[in-house]
Amino acid sequence: MARLMKQWTIDALGAQNLKLAERPVPEAKPGEVLVRTTAISLNFRDKLVLENGMGMRLAFPFVPGSDMAGVVEAVGSGVTRFRAGDRVISVFDPTWIDGQKPGTARHPTSFALGGLNPGVASEYVAFPEDWFVHAPKSVDEGEASTLPCAGVTAWYALVEKGRPKAGDRVVVQGTGGVSLFGLQIAKAHGAEVIVTSASRDKLDRALALGADHGIDRVNEDWVERVLEITDDHGADHILELAGGANLGRSLQAVAVQGRISVIGVLEGAEISAPAPLVLLKSPVIQGIGVAHRRALEDLVAAVDQTGLKPVVDARYRFEDFRDALAHLDRGAFGKVVVEV
Asked: Which residues does the UniProt record annotate as the domain Enoyl reductase (ER) (predicted)?
């Protein structure tokens, strides 16, 4: 008799359509590994995909989620990268191993898990071995599950593309998962970190985590404060999480020939900025679509070498997946994790 597992699915768009179903536990086919899920980390993207599909043609029943940690239970024939008992984490876009991102000018795309590829909100998954990397040894399952999207996005923006050096001024917008990874990674490279937030409590927590300055963006002009803090030098690197017209504000705050990593769309998918500042400051404005597998492997090594601890705001049971999504919607300090 086939073993059964629990799996969250939707048959139509809308988080209200989430249901916990029973499915047979998959088998590891040639080239695949069967992984028992131990933790799932939620991203704002998961909420958008559930609500509107983000322009993708989803295959129903659709399983959400891209970020997981787990333990290899079995391997199919031909598998060489893993063996039973290995702790692993998922790769956000398993088609992007290294180098240039796949896609064309006409059809840029991302074959991410929980989108054009299957999701991970399941007690077991059987995926090709290339869809996983070894988990860091120094963090627990929930913490490890936060690396595949939020962690590696901040790493790719700052380290792979930004190459920070000691003394750089880095602005981190907000206190979500990417932002707090950015804070910790920037500090590990000797940068001076400025955090903006609409919550005084979250700013205090960010300062306790190591931020050098906290700016209340509701009651202060955050651009003016950045310029004051940096003696008009501006920010060498800004993690732009808001999107929309906020990109124009980031251009005001960035240093001459500084860098803005465009990551989030919380304030709108249509970004805008004044052309004169682009021309006068000559900044690098870099879109960050998460990262390749090699960068994730680099981050895993850095976590073990530096002792970086992902910030987990709350942990939910697998049966409480809907409650975890609601917490994400309210706004988290760091990451929301579902333990399986």
From this structure: 14-338
